[in-house]
Amino acid sequence: MKDANYKLNLFVLVGLLFISSCMAQQVDIVRDKKAETEIVISSRPSNLERKAALVLQEYIKRITGVPLAILSNPSGTKKHVVYIGNNFYQQRIGKKVGLGNEGFEISVRDGQVYLTGGSGKGLLYGVYELIEKQFGARKYDQGPAWVPRRSSLTLPQDFNLRFEPALRYRESYYPASADAEYLDWHHLHRFEDLWGLWGHSFFKIIPPEDYFQQHPEYFALTNGKRSATQLCLTNPDVQKIAINYFRRAIADNPDAVYWSIAPMDGKGYCTCDRCTKVDQEEGGPQGTLLRFVNRIAAQFPEQNFTTLAYGYTAEAPKITRPLDNVYVLLSTIDATRERGLAVNPTAAPFRRQLNDWSKISSHIFVWDYTTQFTAYINPFPMYDHYQSNIAYMYQNGVKGIFEHGPGHTQADMSAYASYLQAKILWNPELDQAEVEEDFLDGYYGAASKDIKKYLKQLIDARKTSRSTLDIYGNPILSRHGYLSLEKMRLFKELVNNAQKAVAGDPKFISRVKLIALGLEYAALEQSKAYGDHPFGFLNRKASGEWMVNPNWMTRIDEFLDHALRSGAIELAETDGSLEQYRQQWLTLLNKPYLPSLLQGIHPQFKPSFLEDFPANGKTTLNDGLSGTTDYSYNWLLFDSKDVEINFPFPNETMASQIQLNFLLDPAHYLFLPDGIAVESSEDNISYVNIGKYKIDTGLIAEGPICYPVSFDLKQQKGRFLKVKITFSQEFPHWFEGSKHRKPLFAIDEIHADQAD
């Protein structure tokens, strides 16, 4: 019995020694709701050191309920001290802090904790890394951070966490980035904070309203005349004005890190003799741009300047090299998103441009795109490419990335996209799947299982349907691919299941409902193309006439109310406000839907319409659905000189009038045809002209407009009605844009009235 007691006591003693040894191998920050540590900062701390200490104190208190003291010297009453600031490390450890820009290190030495940082906010970033990685808190979006509840917080005795970011500029342009703590927590930047002048800046430097009337020579010579489209970059006076502008701007904003010198978006560059000579030497207008930027940058060697390699300036010049204080901002705008940048054929020009620019400069930034600008909340499943795209750019020498999302409005999976992008921008080589799993479980709670299935099904649907993900696409185009009716039913079922899983929890259900909102938007948009189909907005009477579903406007208003409450204040980059969306629907629903002689007839096309924009195929022109000012909605596009559209009737018929709609949209190279002729035939061999119309192609349009044409027809019986459209395939004289693409014309609803 004594021997048994001896063995038991020995076992207990060994256990206690083991526990004591383990405890000796860790630093107790808080132990059983008691502070074992204090925070020490300099007696004259910097603003960053003070903020770092306060943030650490706040989150330890939120997690444990225990406030740690912030002192300027150790009190001697605590076992451990958290020293914040580089001076303590250098004085007590005897080593310099060798950290790069925005880097940090957290280390435990002899039971004491040292937080150090490189330039910028490295010290603060280290505090947030400690709070997340070691203490378990999460900052999922712009709302309050989630924190676990614990009675104890510890660090291993040999704890060391050190990191220096690979990218010097990191921005994910989503709603969460409007929150200052989200930016610091995820180590992101905002262009508003770094740039004194951002983006397409020419006309901020030399505004046309101030200079054009008196000095047209300061502006681009295009098509033989001076126009306020761009600047004339070889004009010495333009250079002097620009230098004086930056001298004043830099004095007014000395803390700005970068200044942009870049062309306006999308219009003609200067073709005067001086500019043309430089462009010929350099291989394009990127030559005059870079020489202009270099001249200004040379005047301010302590400042950093950026310029855009975008559109007509995307290619690297043959001769000129950017100065050391010039950063080149390339664009991925022409690449589709269904495949990664490293392998996508549409990204081949970007890959070549990146390679060419990298040969002449080590200062390369990229302006990348991760949302659908024409339909922000529409499902846009490029999620599996976030990491590979950022890693590709980093591995090819890129030093900064602007991930262009929706800005301050909601988009598809906004919180998820921003969170993943932020983590990958900080560390391009991390495991995306691990971060993704952690986010989805925390952000959606019990709904995460179905949300994961939903995201997987979206990606699978994109792959199996071989869909194109275009940043200027829309749900109507996608209904032939990953947003087919069959897939939409599946997606809605999964999201409905997710809502049921978190029923009764307002926080989680609101997050799931935001996904449902995107699917409802897709369904509403697709209904514009479905007409009297069960998923359309029209019903057909027994007489054959169409009528609007009487409950449709109620559905629209419910959608808009949910969008407003969810923060989806813009549905598209252009004309996308909620009120504009409502007005678009009112216009569509209030138009008359009259029976047409052509209804139900499948026309023959010679030649056929462009397959990239199939709309509703051969039924597009007589399905009762009129196209809007968006060329991708219900318009058929043609690039041929002459087009014939032939309607075969089952019986002899006579039309009295014809109506057609065309789209004038110069920004997308859509122009009006020259004329229309209508012919009738009994046998499809011999045709008689029964009407014609000449169009005024001199009509100037700044933005897209629908152009209706209506004219009477000579009453002639026949079994075939042929509409012949002539198109010059030439740009109108007033067009001042780039002419690197062929002009097109777009046609929608053709309506014919039955003769009495």
Automatic annotation (TrEMBL):
Keywords: Hydrolase, Signal. Residues 33-130 form the Alpha glucuronidase N-terminal domain. Pfam families: DUF4838, Glyco_hydro_67N. GO terms for molecular function: alpha-glucuronidase activity. InterPro entries: DUF4838 (IPR032287), Glyco_hydro_67_aGlcAse_N (IPR005154), Hex-like_dom2 (IPR029018). One of its GO terms (biological process) is xylan catabolic process. The keyword Metal-binding does not apply. PROSITE patterns: PROKAR_LIPOPROTEIN (PS51257). SUPFAM superfamilies: beta-N-acetylhexosaminidase-like domain. It comes from Sphingobacterium siyangense. Residues 1-24 form the signal peptide. This is Alpha glucuronidase N-terminal domain-containing protein. Coiled coil: none annotated.
